[in-house]
Each structure stands twice: as structure tokens, then as C-alpha cells.
Amino acid sequence: MSTSTVSATAAAPKKSGGRKKLTLPWIMLIIAGGLALVSLVRLISGADDLTSVGQVSGALSLAVPIGLAGLGGLWAERAGVVNIGLEGMMILGTWFGAWAGYQWGPWTGVMAGIIGGAIGGLLHAIITITFNVNHIVSGVAINILALGFTQYLSNFTFAEAPGGSSKQSPQVEPIYKITVPGLSDWMSDLQGKHWFFVSDLAGVIGGLVTELSLLTVVALLLIPGTWWVLWRTTFGLRLRSCGENPTAAESLGVNVYKYKYIAVIVSGALAGLGGAFLSIVASPIYQEGQTGGRGYIGLAAMIFGNWMPGGMALGAGLFGFIDSLKLRGGATNVHALLLLIAILLVLVCAWQLYKKKYLQAGISAACAVLLFLWYALTDSVPSQFVDAAPYVTTLLVLALSAQRLRMPKADGMPYRKGQGK
């Protein structure tokens, strides 16, 4: 078959979008601008923990399972299969990871978690691709099935194990963590000086080189790895063509069923890896309800990232950062977040005025004023808002980014071989 022809087919929808891709210099500039804005908020609010080494390290740990679930969703949806079942596949990963981990070691647990998630992905593939069941219905069913299945297994495995119960496993041996000697201490000292931008940058670097799990390194490498496989190989080109126009891909000799199956199984494996991370690295023990909706948040991160690995990683990092703020500083850090969101809304308002979208600009300005008043008139926020902050952030981010999104053209659409004839 002609690879160039498939390339033209897969790329065709992008021409109508009329959007230019962000280059690496622009991405780095945006990240630097965001860090400068956070630094400014830190100086104004006095919330020095916003960019501390511990905060960044905690945010990274919380972002990894979300990012792995998002990567899983990206693989499936790039092949045209909506995977709402990421949460259930993560649940399978947490249980199988802990079950194998406490018996045979953490790395065996990681492999078991991947296999558990892949089994969930295979089930979703059979239901949606072979039997053509609605993707949303199948995903929801897998989430329910995975929850009940793991609860059932826990009753006669963990409940009878020393140190376990029907709702949690015995403790799993943790995976080795690395710290870059010298650099970690230097960054920590520099961050403690609380200088503008410099200390914040030191906090970010320090968080990336302090107590870093080897599994975290593997997860971070999977992001550029996914980009390379899906956008720089013939295999990835054919897989993406199945999500854009499967009928055209079939006419050029692509085995659409095979590529969809591979994508959904890999999707489940990545979600399972995220689940194993939770039960082996984040907290070396399995607990019922451990995923806490991270599969759904990973799906939101993928949508925020416009079905691209880099954007998905930024979304996962944002959600991990907000969650870490809640856990470390509670009301103080979330109160400073009100000021940050207010400033961001002012920037959104200016951009909407530039684009002559006056209604959107007015709404952004009104929300910014309310948040400024809330910040100025209070010293903290209610505990209920602190708990809801990660989920509120998810909704806000999706609402603000909805207009620039473009999902794969055939995402979620039923496919039958030979339907174009």
C-alpha cells in the first residue's frame, strides 16, 4: 500500500482546521510565562509553598497516574474508539499490581498491573469493535464490572493475607527512588530564598530530581515515546488513519480491526500501569476506591490536550498540581489559587477583546472581579471548596479550551468491514 496516500488521508482533516501547531520554542515560552505568573502570585499572597520542592515532587507523583490514563485514552481515541472504561482498567491495575507486588516484588506487580489493565482493554475492544456495542455503554459497564470484580477477589485473597483485609492489601515493597546528589540540595537551598522566578525555577528542578521513582521516569518517557510511535512511524500513521477515516484506510489495505484492537489493548495497559503506580509507588498498598476518579480526569486531560501527548501531559500536570496544593497547604494554597485564576481570567478577557468576542470578554471580566473580591475579602476558603478544587479546575479548563478542540473525525463511530462498498 502507499504510505504517502494514507498520510494524505489521515492529514486531510487538519487542513480544514486552519490552526498552526505550537513549536517547541513557543511551548517553552508559555511554560516560562506560566511559571513567572505563579511566582508573582506567590510573592503577593505569601504562599511560599506554591513552587517548593515538596510541592512539585508531590504534583509529579499525583500527575503520573492521571497522565498514564490520559495516554491510554489517546491511543484508543486516535484509533476511533472512545474509552470511558479507563477508570475500570485503572482499578484492575491497582488490584493486580498490589496482588502480585506483595508476593513477588514491585516490578512483578507493575507487569501484573499492565496485564490486568490490558485484559480490561481487550474486553472493551471485543465489545465495541467486534460486537459494535456503543462505546460509552461498554466503558461504563467495564467500570462497574472492574469495581465489583476486584471487591470479590479481595474477599478471599487480601482478607486472608497477613496485614490485609477485604478492603486493602498487605504492604507492597516500594520501588527504588533516586535523588541527584548535590543538585537536589542546591535547588532546595535556592528555592528557600524565595526570589522571584529563580527560586520557583529551582523548586521545579528540585522536585524533578528529588526522591524520583524509577517508575515515574518510565512514565515520563512514555510521553515522547507515544508521540514518536503515533506521529513518526508507519504503524502510527495507519493507526491514526483508522480514527480519521477507517473506510478510506481499509480501501488502501489497512487492517482496521487489527489496529483498533492493538490501540485499545495498549490503552488498557497504560491505564493499568497508572493503577499499578497508585498501589505500588504513590502508596505501597491497595485500597478500595484508590483510583478516586483519576481515569475520568485522565480523559479530561487528554481532551484538554487536544488528543496530543504534549498537551495531555500539561493537562495532567495542571490537575496534579492543584491536587497537591490541596493536600499540602489546604486552604492557604487554594486561597492563593483564587488570585492566580483571577489574573488568568483577566488575560483571557484581554485575548477575547482582541478577537472581538465581547460577550465572552465580559463574562471573563465579571468572573475575574468576583474572584479578586473573594481573595481580597477573605483569608482562606471553605474546606469543601478545597476538596472540590481539582474537580472545579477540571471543569473550568475544559470549558475554556472547548472551542479549540478537534477530536479524530471517526472517534466513537461504528465500523464494519466493507461498509464503504
From TrEMBL:
**Topology versus the membrane:** Multi-pass membrane protein
InterPro entries tied to this protein: ABC_transp_permease
Which keywords label this protein?
Answer: Cell membrane, Membrane, Transmembrane, Transmembrane helix
Q: Where in the cell is it found?
A: Cell membrane
Q: Does the keyword Iron apply?
A: no
Keyword Ribosomal protein included in the entry's annotation? no
Q: Which GO terms describe its cellular component?
A: plasma membrane
Q: What protein does this entry describe? A: ABC transporter permease
